[in-house]
Amino acid sequence: MRRTLIHNATIVNEGQSVRGSVVIENGRIAEVLTHGKPLSAPCDETIDATGCCLLPGIIDDHVHFRDPGLTHKADILTESRAAAAGGVTSIMDMPNTNPPTVTLDALNAKLDLLNEKCIVNHSCYFGATNSNYKDFHKLDKHRVCGIKLFMGSSTGNMLVDGINSLQNIFNGTDMLIAAHCEDPAIIKENTAKYKAMYAEEDDVPVGKHPNIRSTAACYASSGLAVKLAEQADARLHILHLSTAKELGLFKSTPLAEKHITAEACIAHLFYSLSDYRTLGTRIKCNPAIKRKNDRDALRAAVNSGLIDVIAT
User: Residue 131 in contact with residue 165, Cβ under 8 Å?
Assistant: First the structure.
């Protein structure tokens, strides 16, 4: 057995920072040494971590590795290497690939690819459609991390917006349902309005993207998802919140007691409306980056525990 001592680090874990050392044995944490606790046995290698922070491996619950079918953007090997380099040791991959991960055959093929190419711990979501809820009971909960539900159209053709289909999904599983929430009817109306407004120009200015993918569109869809989850007693995780208004849908209770949880993505915590002037389409995403007060509210919600996850 090979033992490596990471010595004299600032260990950040469970809400605490403490000076100490960690022993890694055959790739696993064997000892955490704080408050002068001695080694149980000699180590083969010592890494001096003076001045460095030592954190547990990060779990990223929302990644797009673009494999299969979209590998001109990225693939499982390149993205999992990037994850590992950034301290992310477990990932949950999204289903809007080509083909989308919405059948059992596509799911098994995706898992085979992950097993072959991914260098970190991994799982993937099964994508919901209007009709595949009957397959949910066939999913292996040890391999599949949840159901991905597009209640707003984004990339790929996986929109589910009929109320009967949504009720079947929320009542059809006890697995986690991870939802992209934007109301398609509101987006469609806003799109028509701004296309008419800028009819004489080549395109609607990118700075109007948050007017199209609006606060109202986000809140209407998130509110519906929460309502359906409460009615079905379903486990719901709302992805990439982008507005202050949506935060009122969530409760400040300990994570272990929550049945409905929330996520913020890094872009929504970094940027705001004014950044479209300099960054343009480089920060165009769905849901859209919105106003500074939305960004500041999201940051405060992360710090207070109202938002439970930061994802990439």
Answer: yes
pLDDT for residue 287 = 97
| pTM of the predicted structure, to 2 decimals | 0.90
Contacts of 208 (CB under 8 A, 6+ apart): 194, 198
Run of H or E including 120: none
Residue 44: other Cβ atoms inside 10 A: 10
Query: Which residues are within 8 A (CB) of 75 and not within 5 positions of it... i.e. 6 or more apart?
Result: 65, 66, 67, 117
Distance CA 89, CA 83 (A): 7
Q: Which pLDDT score is estimated for 201?
A: 86
Q: Which residues pair with 92 in a beta bridge?
A: 123
Q: Dihedral, CA atoms, 87, 92, 96, 102, nearest 10 degrees?
A: 160
**Does the pLDDT value for residue 82 go beyond 80?**
yes
The Cα 140–Cα 136 span in angstroms is: 9
